Amino acid sequence: MGLGSVTFSLRETLRRPFVLIVLNYTLPSFWRQIWAFASTVICADGALNMIYETGGSSFIPDVVVGDLDSLSESVRIAYASLTEFVVVDDPNQNVNDFGKCLLHVRRTPSLGALPVVVLGALGGRFDHSAANLSAASCFAAEHEQLIVLLSDASLVLPLAARGEREATHRILRDELVESRVCGLVPLTPCACVTTSGLRWDLTDQAMAMGVGGFVSTSNEAAAPVVTIRLKEGTLLWTTALRDSPQFPSAPRTPR
Fold first, then answer.
1. Where are the alpha helices (DSSP H) in the chain?
2. What is the pTM for the complete model shown?
3. Residues of the chain with pLDDT under 70
4. Rounded Cα–Cα distance for residues 80 and 19 (Å)
5. Of 142, 133, 152, 119, whose CA–CA distance to 209 is shortest?
């Protein structure tokens, strides 16, 4: 799906094949529900500790990225006899765990066109969250592959325009999962941002971080579909999740 015209629906994304990436930070309370939908699960090695502590060894990823040095002894023992997952050891110290997981997605032809859902990328240390947001945005802009980050509090979707063409993005809100509270946060300077479907719509708005810049926070969705057009740059569409989000039932046998 090209970034010149992106339509995103969380509910539809979960109903179709997608890659789930699980990182080594606090997982949202609904992680098991997302796991049950995923066609492929990739875990950073440290994330196996949390998965085991909260779900036991019955939750087995397809791929573990890392050298397994982050595993606790109890987790190492629990998974020692399992051969169902592939271990991808990437020693590059200049790329964080999330970046290594994304590299594996790009290097695997069967995964290269699938949407990517990420758990454990938000919260905790700000520098880690910032690095994860940067990696997700670069991934979406460079490879034209949809990627969405989920936490208990938020949904974050990187949106971009490439070259000189205007990008048009349609967000189909899931009112059983998302609240009306939303925001548009520019990661790079963005030109001519125009929206429809928001309480406070933007018209040809230049957006940027820093002195003199403009960021749309604490906005509200006023329609089931929000349209965002921009001619240049990369921004983050974010919505606040409901306290008790109601995800759809898994359409296939849970993993």
1. 10-15, 31-37, 47-55, 73-79, 97-107, 126-143
2. 0.91
3. 1-5, 82-84, 90-93, 162-164, 250-255
4. 24
5. 133
